[in-house]
TrEMBL record, chain A:
<dbReference type="InterPro" id="IPR003439">
    <property type="entry name" value="ABC_transporter-like_ATP-bd"/>
</dbReference>
<keyword id="KW-0813">Transport</keyword>
<keyword id="KW-0067">ATP-binding</keyword>
<dbReference type="Pfam" id="PF00005">
    <property type="entry name" value="ABC_tran"/>
</dbReference>
<feature type="domain" description="ABC transporter">
    <location>
        <begin position="2"/>
        <end position="234"/>
    </location>
</feature>
<dbReference type="InterPro" id="IPR017871">
    <property type="entry name" value="ABC_transporter-like_CS"/>
</dbReference>
<protein>
    <submittedName>
        <fullName>ABC transporter ATP-binding protein</fullName>
    </submittedName>
</protein>
<dbReference type="GO" id="GO:0005524">
    <property type="term" value="F:ATP binding"/>
</dbReference>
<dbReference type="InterPro" id="IPR027417">
    <property type="entry name" value="P-loop_NTPase"/>
</dbReference>
Automatic annotation (TrEMBL), chain B:
<dbReference type="InterPro" id="IPR001851">
    <property type="entry name" value="ABC_transp_permease"/>
</dbReference>
<keyword id="KW-0812">Transmembrane</keyword>
<feature type="transmembrane region" description="Helical">
    <location>
        <begin position="61"/>
        <end position="83"/>
    </location>
</feature>
<dbReference type="GO" id="GO:0005886">
    <property type="term" value="C:plasma membrane"/>
</dbReference>
<keyword id="KW-1003">Cell membrane</keyword>
<keyword id="KW-0472">Membrane</keyword>
<keyword id="KW-0029">Amino-acid transport</keyword>
<protein>
    <submittedName>
        <fullName>Branched-chain amino acid ABC transporter permease</fullName>
    </submittedName>
</protein>
<comment type="similarity">
    <text>Belongs to the binding-protein-dependent transport system permease family. LivHM subfamily.</text>
</comment>
Length: 234, 285
């Protein structure tokens, strides 16, 4: 459903991404792995329209979305949960969630999606009247993901959802991703923890210096000599 | 014995001041733009109403039916074609443009209406209510009631509607607002247009209360800044109370020190608050 074709992205005269090819099917959970500065966040930002590529195309359900603006990309069903959560700090939890349903397409499903978000993250329902900045880090991450789901997406882009969180919370977030997938939503996530990524995803792309150096099913990647050498220190 | 009408008039005058400051506060709170043309845009609406009253014998409050949509449209155009276009080029540009608009309006008013002082004089603008020894001009009472109604409406709009929430979201995190599918330029244009409608309403009630001339915009801009400094930016209750405190300072200052020095008390208070509590009484951060 999402196809990235021969994508080159330059930023301030530097080549950040080179010849990226990537494909995600319905219900898939795909990980994007790489060191800091490998271009993972830039790739997500390019898909969601914040960064315009120099060359290459991005297709979503057969539609060329390369030149669409960020708010138009949300409208067609791509939700991006950004790095650092970026919740609206002065708004209540419920207002944050309702804003997630701003795209016209999503407004019809507000009640249904709200129910789903509260089913996934009951903590948010308990705290729905609270001002968002008073939530804990884990709750803010839940809110950020929940807000993304409110736009009734077909694909969810997640950027570093486990940053700075306790392992128990990280596990519960990834458990939630499995339930989200059951709704037919595809997931592309960026994660620094390679072991965790390979456990949670179906497939993974490994980025290095702006290029995809490896891509395969997580099962195969776990046993790949290069992955073992580079990331597991074997 | 203290004359109670002074206190009541001060509070009611505060309503008008809050109304004058509300648009300035909204525009700054949402798009971080200090609209120094705000006072002149208010006076622009006052003169429009004056024209309707003089040539068509149209009541100023009824003329809002035409002036409010006109100001809304003007706000959209100003934002989309001047502020939005230039803010991407350099961050200072919108401020300079606002200065330009201010100068153009002042001179346009001067040419069209002469520097003479004028007023929106209607059958009720000079009418006063009398309860025992308390005496309140009807226009002051109107200011107060209208200010409360407008603030309630704005509050409901900002907290209950999609567009209102989008305006608040875009003011807190622009990128995240984009990610929600919000067209932030459109939302900002709309917020600016709403501020212009509030300016139009403020302009008409100002004209019913005070005489005005082509330079009045500057004086009322300073009052708007004073309200915002006292109340703190970005807080509706703060703006309202800031207006009331300013109004009281002016009428009490006038009562005790004579009307020549009534504004002195106001400016001194603003100065003291800037020195000791620069975030205002209710401001965020």
């Amino acid at each position: 459903m999402l196809i990235v074709e021969e994508l080159d992205v330059n930023y301030g005269g530097l080549e950040i991404l080179k010849n990226i090819n990537l494909k995600i099917e319905k219900r898939e959970i795909v990980a994007l792995i790489g060191a800091n500065g490998a271009g993972k966040t830039t790739l997500l930002n390019t898909i969601s329209g914040f960064v315009k590529p120099k060359n290459g195309k991005i297709y979503f359900e057969g539609l060329d979305i390369t030149r669409l603006l960020p708010h138009e990309i949300v409208e067609i069903g791509i939700a991006h949960v950004p790095e650092g959560r970026r919740i609206f700090p002065e708004l209540t939890v419920i207002d944050n969630l309702i804003l997630g349903a701003f795209p016209r397409r999503a407004r019809r499903f507000v009640d249904e999606n709200l129910k789903f978000v509260f089913f996934l993250f009951p903590r948010l329902e308990e705290r729905k009247k609270q001002i968002a900045k008073t939530l804990s880090g884990g709750e803010q991450q839940m809110l950020s993901i929940g807000r993304g789901l409110m736009s009734a997406p077909k694909i969810l882009l997640l950027d570093e959802i486990s940053l700075g969180l306790a392992p128990v919370i990280i596990n519960s977030l990834y458990k939630a991703l499995k339930i989200i997938r059951e709704k037919g939503i595809a997931i592309l996530f960026v994660e620094q923890n390679v072991r965790k990524s390979l456990e949670e995803a179906d497939r993974a792309y490994i980025l290095e210096g702006g290029k995809i150096v490896l891509s395969d099913s997580c099962h195969n990647l776990k046993n790949h000599h290069k992955v073992k050498e580079l990331y597991f220190g074997v | 014995m203290m004359d109670w009408s002074v206190i009541i008039m001060g509070i009611m005058l505060g309503g008008l001041y809050a109304l004058i400051a509300l648009g300035l506060s909204l525009v700054f709170g949402v798009m971080k733009l200090i609209n120094v043309a705000h006072g002149d845009l208010i006076i622009f609406a006052t003169y429009l109403s004056y024209a309707f009253l003089t040539y068509l014998k149209l009541d100023p409050i009824i003329s809002l039916v035409v002036i409010a949509p006109l100001m809304f449209f003007l706000g959209l155009m100003l934002y989309l074609y001047f502020f939005a276009k230039t803010s991407s080029e350099m961050p200072e540009a919108p401020l300079i443009i606002a200065f330009g608009i201010s100068l153009i309006l002042q001179n346009y008013h001067q040419i069209l209406w002469s520097p003479m002082s004028r007023g929106l004089t209607t059958s009720y603008s000079l009418y006063s209510l009398v309860f025992k020894s308390i005496y309140i001009p009807l226009s002051y009472l109107l200011n107060f009631v209208v200010a409360i109604v407008i603030m309630l409406l704005l509050h409901i709009f900002l907290t209950r509607t999609y567009l209102g929430r989008a305006i608040r979201a875009a003011s807190q995190d622009l990128k995240a607002a984009h990610l929600m599918g919000i067209n932030t330029q459109k939302v900002f244009a709309f917020a600016f247009a709403i501020a212009m409608v509030i300016a139009a309403i403020a302009g008409i009630f100002l004209g019913l209360t005070f005489p005005f001339n082509p330079q009045s915009g500057v004086a009322f801009l300073i009052i708007a800044f004073g309200v915002v400094i006292i109340g703190g930016l970005g807080s509706m209750i703060g703006t309202f109370l800031g207006g009331v405190i300013l109004g009281l300072a002016q009428t009490l200052g006038g009562y005790f020190l004579g009307s020549a020095s009534q504004m002195l008390v106001v400016y001194l208070m603003v100065l003291l608050i800037l020195a000791f509590k620069p975030q205002g009484f209710f401001g965020i951060k």
